[in-house]
Amino acid sequence: MKEFSNSTIIIPTLNEEKNIGPLIKRLTLLYPKVNLIVADDGSTDNTRSIAEEKAVVIDRTEKRIKGITASVLDAAQQVMTENIIVMDADFQHPPEKVGDIIRLLSKNDIVIAVREKVIGPWGPVRRLESRIATSLARLRVGKVRDPLSGFFGIKTGFLKNIDKTNFEQHCFKILFNMLKKTDRGTRIGYVLYDFDMRRSGESKIRKQHIWYFLKSLLR
Asked: For residues 113 and 101, is the Cβ–Cβ distance under 8 A?
């Protein structure tokens, strides 16, 4: 059985008590000795206490800046492994694809999990919003597939060398923040997956996150 001790999975969370336990169980079953960091943004439920049984937990409750970008960057400072994988806790990102991302990181700087299709009810307005946001993102980063994906892998050394001065810390789209700082020589690989509906809980995206994304476009 292959060990995955060279990789760390970062999971940003906020009130994911119904999802985080099953997700960690699935990841540790699929990827023996993989490192797990849960970057919790101030959950008011039992997310942190559940995660602490199997993962390193960063409690960001008192942090002034909230959001996925800030959470992932905090967690990345503690990573000592060769690879980092970022994924959500709500099972919209299939754990089974993490292994493919790790495999492709052996020859790429970044590996993006690309949403090939959406499973479940994703209305026409949501689809239109996604297309518009993706088109705007590509104006900044070029013809990158799914530049707003929240499911990706990156070489730890590559991430630590990225200039993060102008990152929009509140923005949910950390991959986009990173891609803005890459050049033509960056090796990017892709893994296709089906984007599922969240199993439990509710989406954390609010109207202000649209504003944060627009600010990120201009930085």
From this structure: yes
Helical spans, DSSP H, in the chain? 17-30, 47-51, 68-76, 98-104, 124-141, 156-160, 174-179, 207-218
Return the closest-CA partner of residue 90 out of 201, 170, 10, 194: 201
Mean pLDDT per 10-residue segment, the chain (219 residues): 89 96 97 97 97 96 92 96 96 95 97 85 67 81 91 96 84 88 91 76 57 63
Q: Which helix (H) or strand (E) holds 80?
A: none
Q: How far is CA 61 from CA 2, 130, 166, in A?
A: 36, 30, 23
Q: 121 CB contacts (<8 Å, ≥6 apart)?
A: 197
For the purposes of burial, counting CB atoms within 10 Å of the CB of 216, is it exposed (0-12), middle (13-18) or buried (19 or more)?
buried
Check residue 28 and report its DSSP letter.
H
Where do we find the tokens 């969240």? 198
Cα–Cα distances (Å) from 174 to 68, 155, 163, in that order, read: 7, 15, 13
> CA 58, 60, 66 angle in degrees (round to 5)?
130
Place of tokens 């559940």: 50
Farthest CA pair distance, the chain:
46
SS3 state of residue 63:
coil
State pTM to two decimals: 0.88
Encoded tokens for 9: 């999975």
